[in-house]
Amino acid sequence: MKSLFATLFFLLLSLSAITAQEYKVFGTFKDPQQVPMAGVSVTLEDSTMGTVTDSSGYYELWVPAGEHTFVFSYFTSEPLKRRLKVSKNTELNIHLNEDDIMLDEVLVSAIRVSGQAPVTYSNLTADEIQPRNLGQDIPVLMNYMPSVVTTSDAGAGVGYTGIRVRGSDATRVNVTINGIPYNDAESHGTFWVNMPDFASSVQDLQLQRGVGTSTNGSGAFGASLNLLTDKVSEEAFAEISTGAGSFNTFRNNIKFSTGLMNDHIEVSGRLSRIKSDGYVDRASSDLESYFLQAAYVDKNTLIKALLFGGHEITYQSWNGVEDPALLETHRTFNSAGAIYDEEGNIVDYYDNEVDDYKQDHFQLHWGQAWNSNWSTNLAFHYTRGRGFFEQYRQDDDFETYGLTPIMVDGQLLNTTDLIRRRWLDNDFYGTTFSATYADNSAFNLILGGAWNKYEGDHFGEIIWARYASDSDYHDRYYDDNSLKTDFNLYAKADVKISEAWSLFGDLQYRTVHYTANGAETGIVDDTFDFFNPKFGVTYTLNDTNHLYLSYARAHREPNRNDYEGGSPNPEKLNDFELGWRFNTSGMRINTNVYYMRYKDQLVLTGELNDVGAPLRENVGDSYRLGLEVDAMVMLSDHFVWRPNVALSENRNLDFYFERNGILTDLGNTHISYSPGIVAGNMITWMPVTGLQMSFLSKYVSSQYLGNIDTNSSKLDAYFVNDLNLQYEWKPQWVFDSIILSGLVNNIFDEKYISNGYYYTYDVPEADDSVTTYDGVGYYPQAGINFLVGATFKF
To answer: What distance in Å separates the CA atoms of residue 646 and residue 648, rounded to the nearest whole number?
Structure first.
């Protein structure tokens, strides 16, 4: 497989020289103070041809002869467009004025990076998401980004989905929406199923791999992901999208914007509904979401009020397939909700074994440009979450629920069949703030921080029991609560000390106070104080070559499940990144080497708790060492090639494990869920205006589901290919445009498994010895399947 990718890389690279007759369009992009702007996206409308400006604001783009619309995207409410007839090499310079500047990007500029910052990052825009945005979750849409591995419980990308970056699971990927923390404060998880179709309201996202820069919320131990929601639209519009696909999947949404009324006020929104049976048996999803935005904007001010959220009802499918034999005979088997007879045979399924959760978010943002140097952003937020999962339980002990045994027909009973609901009712609120000083391109300073508070209630109810004992309606068999406050301050500075050298510094102080009570966690009352310094240097060799070196220190507190599992120690990380960026009009290459050294890393054990959540444990010393390469190559004016590959070594050092009653030093073992090779590839063909076809490939090498390197815990490698088509027709009557999209996933019908779990258990023997046995479960993914959709824009 390594040789195959290497051969393809050099073969296609050699083809990049074969292009049609083209002319060079070039120029500089400057802000209102005539300062060159780096990182500005320059593209041709209705194509994927493009480049970005370098540190001197310069760009060049080779285009075929003819009339073209050039689109410049950077800090603008709408991208700047310039129409140009090209018949020779042509200079096109862009100088912004004050009215061109828009403050949407200020909402996230304090925690994002751009241009040649000494941070490893990738961006994904709404235009790049759109062709595949047919109802699948954001993690699935990010599948082809470097070092990213995604999975789906239901097997088809709708419902519960997960993401890992550099082998780190979702609890260790910091996620913010407009700079507001999205990770659950207590579990650290991100549950995209609570916000279905959210990708339809995302303007762009940035994935910083490694520690990245200081952000709000829990520390980034694999990556940080920031999403920026829809920008203010100057023009009114409405659009209707509908789609359908395999496994009775249906998606419908409507979007609208009033445009700027009286040049200052905009109201926009979206309503979505997604339903799917899922690939796995009964793994159905019934999802609703909404997004509303009201904005006021003038020359120097942006005020945004956002209200968005969702309601999900999903049939549970977190059990996976525990019997490997079923992978051959019944890959879609789902044991959740099974009702067994006395011989252990399944006789029926409980029809409401569901997860039912609602989540609503409110955000208020005020972005202000005070003068040519200073700008600020202040935000307030509130999230309300409530819901439950419901389970049918057989022969559960009365003692588990605080009930007393009862006499029935002269027989003492201490177990019963019952239906229970386990509830989570929480509130999360706080503020984020930042101030930015920019003194031309030589010096930039950002001061910021956040204060957030989480209040969570966990409780359980029995809603039916065959034998009720002494229980009453609405009795709670457990009633726990937790409280968490999180405060941080950071200062970031970027200083250009010469034409070639620039320095970056980032200092953050973060304090966390967490209290909880519960049968699982015990009594918790912990305070953590973290100091997280980050430093970097960028060397500009010339306009096309940039080198960077950075160091970042990060700390992260344990989550609720870590206390339950006996791993209450915070983890620490030293992250070293060395990178090279190469940028021309026809080719972009990003290459970086990283070394991440951990102390008390909370790695996944492979086990799940009784509600399907992955368990973690502190492992002492460990490291991740890797090489990442991603590129964009214009093979011609009709072909674009975007490959990426990540090679890594991920090890626990001097790992101890007790097997058969004997504690053994296993030496340096593989870190769980950390494949050594992750590669992606996208080849896009644009034969005519408005039509594009993409062939997408993803390879993930074998990985261990546990940390003890047993063959039974090894997940096989997989190589999956998708086909994506999109055609936009502009009829110039009734509709502004009609976009038809199609996605064929896994076109070669690969039987693959993207995720699983692993556990061990001890069985006492007659001679007082102990034998350790392995258990494993798998989450099979769908074979060939499809999604199609149509969007009508008015």
So the answer is: 6
Q: Cα–Cα–Cα angle for 484, 597, 759, nearest 5°?
A: 70
Q: What's the pLDDT tens digit per position in 527-583?
A: 999 999 999 999 999 888 999 999 999 999 999 889 888 888 999 999 999 999 998
Tens digit of each residue's pLDDT (9 = 90 or more) over 106-123:
778 888 887 788 999 999
Is 135 found in the same domain as 94?
no
Looking at the structure of the chain, the number of domains it has is 2
CA of residue 588 relative to chain centroid, distance: 24
Question: Cβ distance 219 to 574 under 8 Å?
Answer: no
Q: Are residues 63 and 11 in the same domain?
A: yes
d(CA 215, CA 487): 11
Residues 130 and 71 in one domain: no
* Burial class of residue 763, CB neighbours in 10 A (0-12, 13-18, 19+): exposed
Q: Is 77 left (phi over 0), alpha (psi -120 to 50) or beta?
A: alpha
For residue 677, the enclosing domain spans 120-735+745-793
CATH number at residue 128: 2.40.170.20
Give the pairing type, strands 669-670 and 94-95. Answer: unpaired
Q: What's the chain's Rg over C-alpha atoms?
A: 27
What residue type is 283 in one-letter code?
A
Question: Lowest mean pLDDT: which of 1-15, 213-227, 251-265?
Answer: 1-15
How many C-beta neighbours within 10 Å does residue 297 have?
21
Per-residue confidence (pLDDT) for residue 482, from 0 to 100: 94
Q: pLDDT tens across 173-208, in order? A: 999 999 999 999 999 999 999 999 999 999 889 999
**Among 431, 511, 16, 14, which Cα is nearest to 218's?**
511
Give the phi and the psi of residue 30 in degrees, each rounded to 5: -130, 150
Q: Which two tokens stand for residue 539?
A: 């060397």
Per-residue pLDDT of 590-628, as tens digits, reads 999 999 999 999 999 999 887 788 899 999 899 999 999
Using the 8-state DSSP alphabet, how is residue 170 labeled?
G
pTM: 0.89
Tell which residue, 553, 437, 432, has the closest CA to residue 494.
437
CA 178/CA 160 separation, integer angstroms: 23
User: Would 657 be classed as within a structural domain?
Assistant: yes
The answer on 127 and 7 residing in a single domain is: no
